[in-house]
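FORM 12-B: Structure-to-Sequence Request
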């Protein structure tokens, strides 16, 4: 256990070194330093700025991140304000972890199968209410404004921010604050936003920044739902990286630096918005108004969160239906016949993708969980968490645009022949999985009652024995939850697998996203559902453990009552 003190610097090194190398690689390529003549060149930037439609691509990447964060955070905050402590809140809270496990690609495909002109939603009301007997020529998916992409991002980010806010809620002391506001005559919603939300937002600011950075540079969802004439900047960078013409690599590097600049601008816009909102809140608090439109806001928030949850789950059901549909013509609401033909034909390829994703996920998540536990335990024994003033360093990999980091790393790995290896893919998955595992466990570790381990120490147990025999078993549910989340994050990683794997390491996710440009919905349904099922399985142990604990608690209460 003396080795615990090395855990925090080791974790920091394993996260910072890849990021630093990625930036070195991207800078060297963008400025022509890899050519070996030692001369700095700006030709790559000139070529990148001359790309057709670049202005539209950059504007999409600039606004869509803050917009997705604003809509997701606003909806989550309104729902917390209106329904905290109610049956509706507990019911939807139980759904959020399984919904969060749905990979981005599967969620995107499911949403597309629902809202497309030939999707299930229009089928359910056709032709009786619409008079349509064939799909209308409506531009819903891949619209130039990126609205369908924005919808897909909100669909995925609401569960993430919901669970992050739920974990941070004890820090805001919500019940006491809301009780005080209620005694002063404030309604639930207004009282929450004036007293609880400022403290809650301070605790979840970093995850919100991660949502902004991720949404503005997302690739898999953009390939499925986003515009393609022109696409977002991140998609264009991936196209340049995959171009067989090696002269396009420096152009991709220059475009990656542009993506980094756009992300920083998005975060700056958000910071300016924070200052504006702080002034609005201060002015509103001094106005003396106790509530305005409380009922409408409460029910709108419930309808919004409930609709997103329903669409997420319905999308997975539609994926399953398409995977077993023998024929499904518009406007039929249900397939004419069901068949397992696609599963039988594709099972060898699906099983191979599932096996690779499982192996990578288990290795990356096990390493992330072990190191996160070591870092937190080292901080607990030292009396404070390491680098407590620099927590953002542990979350840096999810604050940096993936495409920028990976473009540089992929270039550096080509020289020593490390690209396209399983070890490299597992290592890069670790970089992106660790922040989620650490943030999840960091919400539980400080709340552990140390008197339990102190009692073991007084009975003669060593610190190591007290940790392994007392503390770990008592924290098994949070650990399993963090492991499940980390595994789901690994399964969903498309860009790291695609770029570092160099197309030679394929998982169920890369196989599924590669089908986005095709038109076979049955294939997409099979791969998307298989991907989702794998991510769901990771959350099964904590859910079963939680159900068992509730059953035993109920039996104990009934036994005492008798």
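FORM 12-B RESPONSE
SEQUENCE OUT:
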């Amino acid at each position: 256990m003396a080795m615990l003190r090395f855990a925090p610097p080791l974790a920091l090194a394993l996260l910072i070194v890849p990021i630093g190398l990625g930036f070195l690689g991207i800078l060297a390529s963008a400025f022509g330093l890899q050519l070996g003549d030692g001369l700095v060149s700006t030709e790559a930037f000139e070529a990148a700025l001359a790309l057709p439609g670049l202005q539209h691509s950059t504007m999409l990447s600039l606004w869509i991140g803050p917009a997705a964060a604003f809509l997701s955070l606003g909806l989550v905050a309104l729902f917390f304000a209106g329904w905290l402590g109610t049956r509706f809140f507990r019911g939807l809270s139980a759904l959020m972890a399984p919904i969060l496990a749905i990979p981005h690609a599967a969620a995107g495909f499911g949403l597309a199968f629902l809202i497309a002109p030939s999707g299930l939603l229009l089928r359910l009301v056709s032709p009786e209410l619409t008079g349509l007997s064939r799909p209308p020529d409506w531009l819903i998916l891949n619209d130039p404004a990126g609205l369908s992409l924005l919808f897909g991002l909100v669909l995925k980010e609401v569960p993430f921010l919901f669970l992050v806010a739920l974990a941070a809620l004890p820090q805001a002391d919500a019940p006491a604050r809301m009780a005080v506001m209620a005694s002063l005559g404030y309604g639930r919603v207004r009282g929450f936003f004036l007293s609880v939300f400022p403290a809650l937002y301070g605790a979840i600011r970093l995850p919100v920044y991660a949502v902004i950075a991720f949404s503005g540079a997302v690739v898999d969802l953009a390939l499925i739902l986003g515009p393609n004439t022109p696409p977002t900047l991140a998609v264009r960078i991936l196209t340049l990286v995959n171009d067989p013409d090696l002269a396009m690599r420096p152009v991709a590097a220059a475009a990656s630096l542009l993506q980094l600049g756009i992300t920083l601008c998005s975060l700056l816009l958000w910071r300016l918005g924070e200052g504006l909102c702080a002034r609005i809140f201060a002015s509103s608090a001094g106005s003396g108004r106790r509530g305005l439109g409380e009922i409408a806001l409460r029910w709108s928030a419930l309808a919004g969160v409930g609709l997103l949850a329903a669409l997420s789950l319905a999308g997975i059901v539609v994926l399953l239906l398409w995977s077993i549909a023998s024929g499904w013509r518009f406007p039929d609401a249900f397939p004419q016949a069901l068949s397992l033909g696609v599963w039988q034909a594709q099972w060898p390829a699906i099983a191979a993708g599932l096996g690779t994703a499982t192996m990578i996920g288990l290795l990356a998540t096990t390493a992330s969980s072990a190191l996160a536990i070591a870092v937190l335990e080292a901080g607990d024994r030292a009396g404070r968490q390491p680098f407590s003033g620099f927590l953002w360093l542990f979350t840096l990999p999810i604050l940096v645009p993936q495409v920028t980091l990976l473009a540089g790393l992929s270039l550096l790995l080509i020289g020593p022949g490390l690209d396209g290896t399983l070890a490299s893919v597992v290592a890069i998955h670790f970089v992106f999985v660790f922040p989620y595992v650490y943030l999840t466990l960091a919400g539980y570790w400080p709340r552990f009652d140390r008197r339990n381990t102190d009692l073991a120490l007084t009975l003669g147990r060593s610190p190591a024995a007290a940790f392994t025999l007392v503390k770990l078993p008592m924290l098994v549910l949070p650990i399993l939850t963090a492991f499940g989340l980390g595994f789901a994050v690994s399964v969903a990683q498309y860009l790291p697998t695609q770029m570092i794997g160099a197309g030679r390491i394929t998982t169920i996710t890369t196989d599924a996203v590669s089908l986005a440009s095709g038109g076979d919905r049955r294939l997409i349904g099979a791969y998307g559902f298989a991907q989702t099922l794998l991510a769901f399985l990771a959350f099964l142990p904590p859910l079963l453990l939680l159900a068992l604990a509730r059953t035993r608690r109920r039996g104990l209460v009934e036994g005492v009552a008798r």
